Amino acid sequence: MLEHGLAATDRQWQTTRRQFMSAAGMLGTGMGLHIADAGGNDVGDGDIPRRRLGRTGVQVSALGVGGHHLGDLPTADEAIRLVQEAVDAGITFFDNAWEYYNGKTENLLGRALRGRRDKVVLMTKVCTHGRSGRLALEMLEQSLRRLQTDHLDVWQIHGIVYDNDPELAYAKGGVLEAFDRAKQQGKVRFVGFTGHKDPAFHLKMLELGYPFDTVQMPLNPFDAGFHSFERQVLPEVNRRGMAPLGMKSMGGTAWAVKSGVVSADELLRYALSLPVATTISGMDSLAVLRQNLAIARGFTPMTATAMDDMRARCAPTAADGRYEPYKVSLRYDNPVTRIPHGFPIDPTQREVTDMLKQGNGTWETK
């Protein structure tokens, strides 16, 4: 049984962070030297640090590029330029999902990685949302075509955000059987799952026992005080030897930055200082990419005291989820997440508008 008490999770979290910081050479006088630690993490000065992707033996850049925001750039050329500049700057982890902008972002990433595919760890997500493993494999083939590759490095279940999602994932004929088939076929190297709603759903996915390689979750100083993935899920993922992938370092909307509670720089530094394999950041302009690169190059982690101070500063506005709306509002659930559950969609959302224009208002239940 997992320990769910606050005291227990605090102990786990503090121990995991100390072990990570020590292993990565981030404590004491070793800071800032261009060395590889005993665990194989590159903690060099001037480059983007490399960290181990859990037990896979693969290394990834501490900063990753989020796939969804590629669809927010004004033109395809600008999105492609952002990806290529990121690769050339040393970012090696790229996120995406089958459903982002109805396939647009996978297509953009595939075009951008021509000639660079072997330099990156490529991840996308499957979007069955409780439907069959057969549909998952069909989605995989679509993703491979869009991404212009014959295999994925990481394939994750997208959006474990409803109470019954863990049971649906583990059901006979479901997505986990597709994971096994795809790995046997050599089309996928590693597998995992994502979600941003409730730590209990992540813990249930882990309790049911499938040997995931990666687990993606929202991590920022507001999360630490509200339905916290950092305190409840992150220690357990590390204990199991899986690779934690951080996301939503800015809370998904950056409202806290716009409100003057914290700065974007502080939020990214906090997220990068946690014991994660990579922090996936949505970047909707070259300016944002370059700002993030400036923080990630030769990154020096925040001290434990500085991180505690950030949590304390964020705590008064963390408790109602105002700066983490994905935890408290269905509006931030992707439309394709909602449809299989029979939930209504919001026609004002940009992706829903595009989806309806394309005549993709419904999906077959398989």
Written description of the protein model:
The protein has 366 residues and is α/β, with parallel strands linked by helices. The protein has a single domain, classed as Alpha-Beta Barrel (TIM Barrel), CATH 3.20.20.100. 40% of the residues lie in helices and 12% in strands. The strands form two sheets. Strands 3-4-5-6-7-8-9-10 form an eight-stranded parallel β-barrel, surrounded by four helices. Helix 3 packs across helix 4. The radius of gyration is 19 Å and the shape is globular.
Q: How large a portion of the residues is in β-strands, by DSSP E?
A: 5-15%
Number of domains: 1
The Rg value, from CA coordinates, equals 19 Å
CATH architecture: Alpha-Beta Barrel
Number of strands: 10
Keywords:
366 residues, alpha/beta, TIM Barrel, eight-stranded parallel β-barrel, two-stranded antiparallel ribbon, globular, disordered C terminus
Question: How is the topology of this model organized?
Answer:
Layout: H1 6-23, E1 50-52, E2 59-61, E3 63-65, H2 76-89, E4 93-94, H3 104-112, E5 121-126, H4 133-147, E6 152-157, H5 165-170, H6 175-184, E7 188-193, H7 199-207, E8 214-218, H8 229-232, H9 234-239, E9 243-247, H10 255-258, H11 264-272, E10 278-281, H12 286-296, H13 304-318, H14 325-328, H15 335-338, H16 350-357
Parallel strand pairs: 3-4, 3-10, 4-5, 5-6, 6-7, 7-8, 8-9, 9-10
Antiparallel strand pairs: 1-2
Helix pairs in contact: 2-3, 3-4, 4-6, 11-12
Summarize the structure.
Helix content is 40%, strand content 12%. It has 16 helices and 10 strands.
